Amino acid sequence: MIYLDYAATAPLDGEVLEAMLPYLKANFGNPDSVHAAGRAAAHAVGEARARVAQVLGVNPLEVYFTSGGTEADNWAVRCLAAGRAALSSVEHAAVLEGAKLREGGFVRIPATKGGLITAEAVRVALTPDTGLVCVMAANNETGTVQPLKEISAVCGERGAVLFSDCVQASLLDLKEIAKLCGAIALSGHKINAPKGTGALVVKKGVKISPMIAGGEQERGLRGGTLNVAGIVGFAVALEKAQRDRQKNAAHVKALRDLFEEKVKSAFGDCVTADGEDRIPSISHLTFQNAPDALLAKLDLHGLCVSGGAACSSHSALPSHVMLAMGKSEREAKRGVRFSFGKETTEEEVLKAVAILIECIP
Q: How far apart are the first and last CA of the chain?
């Protein structure tokens, strides 16, 4: 099997697993219990919160642990600020679908053909009743990096809160992104932490209401017993991802560039790379001669890739990201996302190219 779908999920890192094991077995207490076992678990959560805050350059009390990026996205778009929301048209489905439940309603901000959301487009979308702007840091299908610095300035001028889905942004400087935003969302399983872990960071002074009612966990804003082992693992993975991001970025960029060079040499004008200003780990390619059921054919040859977002891979509908970038429905159904991780090898890349040549006429 050749796995080139790291934007969908990444394998659990060994160091992360080692950090988690004590809280899966011996130290299994509920962090809200007042006895010794509970206090030990609560201490682990507190340490993890401090480590996450240190990586992001925020206050530990601004970090709220969640079950992943989808929960964090929903919580933000539904419960941050008041008034109407303005969402980029290339947001993850968690934001676009979650916004349908927002009391103040929402509008979509158009993207360029390269998938960019410009500061001017944000400015045009804002109205006096806009309280929230949602623009992801890096797109999950194309890898396009958004100009958050310029967008943040516009939001500041208009008094709107800027929220950014940073699930695919581990190769970027998250501390710098956090400075620009009122809130950001993170997911663990994209950075070699376990599935079911993540965080929503909400800056002091930004108002947010609870989405999950229950106990007094997370300062009364997110009910539910905390996933102690997952939280510990998430903190270790986030530290490691940001510490090694330049090395990892150089590794995956070299492989992606090699991959795209070989693919373009083989298919010429029949293939296009989608998106601009991309993170180095994602290559979204549109094949003009892609056969029906291409993903299934690639899978049968042992190549694991996606047609776009993994959460939408079973849908027959064209990618909303591709449509927002001006692609036709036919083109939007012929895109394939290849994504690379620190574990990817050059041998795997070359084999993947050979499989593509075999499967596409």
A: 22
> How crowded is residue 92: how many other Cβ atoms within 10 Å of its Cβ?
27
What distance in Å separates the CA atoms of residue 241 and residue 55, rounded to the nearest whole number? 10
Strands 161-165, 130-134: pairing is parallel
Model confidence, pTM: 0.95
Is residue 179 a contact partner of residue 185, using CB atoms and an 8 Å limit? no
Report, as an integer, the average pLDDT of 77-82: 96
285 — phi, psi (to 5°)? -115, 140
Structure tokens at 324: 């927002």
The helix (H) or strand (E) run that includes residue 3 is strand 2-3
Range 302-321 average pLDDT: 77
Q: Which residue has 């490691």 as its token pair?
A: 240
Q: Tell me which residues are annotated as active site.
A: 311
Q: What is the CA radius of gyration of the chain?
A: 21
DSSP state of 318: P
How would you label 198-208 residue by residue, b for 16+ Cβ within 10 Å and e otherwise?
bbbbbbeebeb
